[in-house]
Amino acid sequence: MDAVILLTLTGLGLAALYFLVASGLSLVFGLADVLNFAHGLFLGVGAYATWWAAGNLPGAGSDGFGFVVAVAFGVAAGTLMAVLVELVLIRPLYSRTIEQVLVTVGLSLAGVALLQATWGADARPFPRPEWTRQVTTILGAQVPNGGLLLIVAAVLVLAAILAFLQWTRYGLIIRAGVENREMVTALGIDVRKAFTLVFAIGGAAAALAGALGSVYFGTVSPQQGGSLLIFAFIVVVIGGMGSVVGSAYAAVAVGLLQQFVNYYGTSGLGDICVVALLAVVLLLRPQGIAGKVATA
Amino acid sequence: MEPILAVQDLSVRIAGLHILQGVSFTVAPTGVTVLLGRNGVGKTTTLRALVGLTPRNGEVRGTVRMQTQTLLGQPTHRLVRGGLGYVPEDRCVFAGLTVAENLRLAERRGSTAAYDRVFALFPELQRRSRQRAGSLSGGQQQMLAIGRVLINDNRLLLVDEPTKGLAPKVVTEVAEVLARVAESVPVLLVEQNLAVVRRLARDAVVLAAGQVAWTGDAQRLLAETELTRSLLGVGSAEGHHTAPGSSHTAPGSHHAAPGSHHAAPGSGRKDGH
């Protein structure tokens, strides 16, 4: 019983991480039709900026309010990075899918190389508050606090994104644009501003995933973003392109499946099961759990 | 009267295909001008080119002026803000958004949204404002698509096949609404239903083989059965009585209408094509 609760909560922690990466990815693809392979870089930038800020930024630190400042700095860096990538590299290439893929893949490779060149290829210990190293006993299971922090953060981000989409003018534009971008422009709206905005939101969420994921793992490494990105893409496809809620459901499914199968089956089998789940969803419901239907 | 819209030598090539080849016509500053032609002749392509929605692999040439403003080459959102309202084929309402959200999306900063005007025309939309647009009937969706454009003041409306796929009773309703709309703003209409054309249109522009085959008085065109058949490939329209003295029109000859009262010099008259 303890094991089930522990696996559920660590699985949800993993799901939270996937969701934070996938939500932005999904919005960017849903609205702007951009497959952003550089999204993992935003995560890396967020993680390293948090790590750097904790050690070097005045006022920031590895504990208490200083840690909040460090994470805020990391999120700001990831957001800025995402906005710059959209404005400088993606914007001239809208509707040119192959060029976009080439540019974002190239950027992610170059970004990882740059992080390696600057701070080395090996994982570095991540400064984190003392309480995140400890565990909380929930119904007899000893759950790492870092994982609980991720879950809380993901729930808050989900609520914030949904509130933004539901209640603001730009949220309305994004929801409409995911359905039919051309018609949004035909109502007199410059939809490109919304593109920049979804990149910013996605960059912020990914950077937060980078910072809090590093807290959970206890280390930061240049490759972190890339490996998470693969599962985030799977989550986006299963959840449905452009649907934040779909991403949330899919993240939970993928996180739990992976955690349980890796524990009760052989290690690594969980990853294969995730890919199998992807195949099943693509066969039975190609638009994903909550995605827009391609022909509608 | 000065035309509201003057299209000069409009050519559109999409993926290597010449869809439009030097189309020229004008749209009168009042009433409904209908754009006619057989399927696939480029009517929708024309409207989309006017509002800047030609696909990226397409190439548009020519000049289009709305009064003093040059249209081609400008981004769609700017054209629409400049007073060019566009109601696309297949309505394109946002199915996942409510009726109210569909309308709110069309609101603009710095101008008052004319909800009273929209709800006066379509009281149904007010009653259903919280309903998802995707759950509306085809006719209601069309009303929403038109209402969405009427939230703002327009100088010209482009309306693409508003009665397509609708039940006969709803077709009549949509036609009545468009007639009322056209009292205050000029409309360039693409429409296949000749009964609707007869109800609404004052002027007609007929496209054939990517060019303008005929321009002139719409009622006169419909009155001449042979001409209608040769240009549009349809027989005498539903409920239509052939006007006396019209049967002498030579079949197959695409001729400029003598009664064409608004065409700019040299614009819409292409004899012998």
Automatic annotation (TrEMBL), chain A:
Alphabetical list of InterPro entries matching this protein? ABC_transp_permease, BCAA_transport_permease
Protein's UniProt name: ABC transporter permease
Which family does the record assign? Belongs to the binding-protein-dependent transport system permease family. LivHM subfamily.
Please give, as recorded in its UniProt entry, the membrane topology of this protein: Multi-pass membrane protein
User: In its UniProt record, which GO terms are filed under biological process?
Assistant: amino acid transport
Any Pfam family from its record, for instance, is: BPD_transp_2
Species annotation = Micromonospora maris
Chief localization class?
A: membrane
Q: What is the lineage of its organism?
A: Bacteria, Bacillati, Actinomycetota, Actinomycetes, Micromonosporales
Automatic annotation (TrEMBL), chain B:
- Highest taxon of source: Bacteria
Tell me the segments the record calls region Disordered: 236-273
Annotated Gene3D superfamilies: P-loop containing nucleotide triphosphate hydrolases
Residues in ABC transporter domain copies: 5-234
Q: Among its keywords, does the record have Transport?
A: yes
Question: Which GO molecular function annotations are given, in alphabetical order?
Answer: ATP binding
Q: What family does the entry list? A: Belongs to the ABC transporter superfamily.
Which species?
Answer: Micromonospora gifhornensis
According to the UniProt entry, the coiled-coil residues are none
A Pfam family it matches: ABC_tran
Nucleotide-binding keyword on record: yes
Q: What CDD domains does UniProt report for this protein, alphabetically?
A: ABC_TM1139_LivF_branched
The name of this protein is: ABC transporter ATP-binding protein
Q: Which UniProt keywords apply?
A: Amino-acid transport, ATP-binding, Nucleotide-binding, Transport
Xref: InterPro entries: AAA+_ATPase, ABC_transporter-like_ATP-bd, ABC_transporter-like_CS, BCAA_Transport_ATP-bd_LivF, P-loop_NTPase
Q: Spans of biased composition, class Low complexity?
A: 250-267
